[in-house]
Give the backbone structure.
Amino acid sequence: MEFPVLSSVRQIFFPRRRRISFSLYRVLIIDNSGDGGRNEEGDEEAESPRSAVSDPKPRAIQGLAYESKSYRLAVVKCTVDAQENIPAAYFVEIWNLRDFPCLEFKVTLAPEWRQSVEAICWRSSVLLFISGMHGQVLLVDVETSRLRGQAAAVSGPVWCLSLNPQKNRLAAGTEDGYISLFDVENEELVIYSGLLEPKGSRILSLSWHLTKPLLVSSGRGRVWLWDVDAMKLRTEMRPPKHGNIESSVSSVIFLRNGTVVSGDTTGATIFWDISHATPIASFKSRSGVLALAHSQSPDGISVFSAGIDSVISEMRLTNKQGSSSWVRSLPRYIHSHDVRALCRAGKFLVSGGQDSYLMFGNDVSIKQTIKIPPNTNSLTVAVARNLLHASTPFLLLQNSSKLEIWQLSSQQNSFSADNFRAVPFCQLLSLTFGKGNECITASAISPSGEWLVASSHRLTKAYRIVPSKAESLVKNAHDKVDIDLVPASKSTDIFALPVDSLTFSEEGRLVVADSSEVFHCKLKWIASGEHSASVVDKRNICSLFPGEFFLCIRYRLAD
């Protein structure tokens, strides 16, 4: 029986004769047995040789923001409730693009904030502005996931954010058309400073002029240019209607030469002369434009647009015979669904959308596009010994909202690399923090299968895994093992705060790492409901290798 080739496998474990492969979409358990994939009667098995234990849903990309000094890219991802088809939770990933795109870490938001992330904007290399349906503007330290500042915007949900080039004033566009202005000169304070009057439409996009105190905003059928110092509307621009339907201008940007570019739901990308509020050039797409980005190089200015038709279009400003004009170049077909975010990040044009792929494009050739598949590092897999039957190991699965412990079946057949068969498995328990709305940031299970430790954004919990009383009657290793979790005492200091990383050594000692310290601990059960966690060592480390060596990984940003 042939085994289909897996693509993009992230982790592989070999507990005895079982191969556990963690792909981007599911965890597969494959048995390398020597019976040729036959059942007890010798007949060929009709079932697939793959057993899917976990099937995490891809996360759609909703927003992008780049910080040039630290080479950091913030990526907003959203999980969708499969039953109701609505956004379930939002997450922010921080990527480092200094040499090659790599995931640096994830920002863990509190439950009340991660239900909606509609806009992000960098304040500095470690501080990120976040807004959403809750109507608050949050200033978050991405390295510690801690809230550094908070302010309420006027009138409902905040749909867009924009920080001026001087980085001392933040604009937030709201549901009822108000534009709230905040002073952000102090890195830990967000102070409300003013309000631009509404024009009867939700503000969908904002952009500042490079040198002047001018702000452009967009909404339903309009593009507005504001003089922020005078707190007055300077001019209004109206994209043409598509029949009797008025368009919604979903994205707007200010170019370095003072030109305003807008993209609307009719598929029009329009270049505006702000002095006369008239269009300079216009390009039409098959479907609505959802995102715009621009770049400037010695070769000229380029504007990129993308949206519902999944095509990324490029418009370049050319200069021929003393006159300049905008010309559309070849389109890029690199996405399969809606493109919701575009961002120029150094040498890359970054895009993302409903297909969950994060694309890093290149100006020279489309073939050099780097494709980052969805669900990268979104699931953690660990294997531990079964308490009662060593031939049926435990499998720990961690995703963003829960922990699961599964039991694999016992197989006594000899190893054969030519044949594969499905491994029976069963779920023993599922664990969530709080009411299921807390994000689990780290987890670990001891090699002996005795201890389970997990951390959320608030605290760290330790559990002892014990068999239920009925397990004393179990004699067959093929039977399901019933286990219980006994919470450990919270008296130990290392379990009073959240941590960034957890792992167990081969000797069963726990390594706990937060943003500043790492503890090497030994867990010991004293009595029912109590435990001791003695700190053996404390170093500047974040992961433990089998044996005697520790690995330290830290990011230090250039001044």
Summary: Residues 390-551 form one domain.
